């Protein structure tokens, strides 16, 4: 073989190796993109589930708060009606301040049955 033929063969081998490496790199990039897409889809699914659970919890919390508020208001109305029917005729501002204090304590005390 001549030097020119050896040189041509070396260039062809080098180009073949470069093309093979490029093909491998493109395959690895495609695999990474596929894995990234799968991870992204999984993450989006998880986020949607978390948002749905959070919304459900908020709905339950609002319902519980509304129920408890109605219970407290109803009790206060009954107490006010009973106080106005009593011979002392209610306690005016003192009774109102006491009712507000009791409600505030029930709603803000950790561990209270009303602190939901």
Describe this structure in words.
The protein is mostly helical and 116 residues long. It has one domain (3-108). 86% of the residues lie in helices and 0% in strands. The chain has two helices and no strands.
List keywords for this structure.
mainly alpha, 0% strand, rod-shaped, 2 helices, 116 residues, single chain, 86% helix
Provide a short characterization of the protein structure:
By secondary structure, the protein is mainly alpha-helical. Helix content is 86%, strand content 0%. The chain has helices spanning 3-85, 92-108.
The domain count comes to 1
Q: N-to-C SSE series?
A: HH
- What is the 3D shape? rod-shaped
Strand content: under 5%
Cα radius of gyration in angstroms: 38 Å
Give the helix level as a range of percent. over 70%
> How far apart are the first and last residues' alpha carbons, in Å?
91 Å
Overall SS class: mainly alpha
Average the pLDDT over all residues and give the rounded result. 86
Unreliable spans are: none
Count of extended strands: 0
Largest sheet at a glance? none
Number of helices: 2
Please write out the topology.
Elements: H1 3-85, H2 92-108
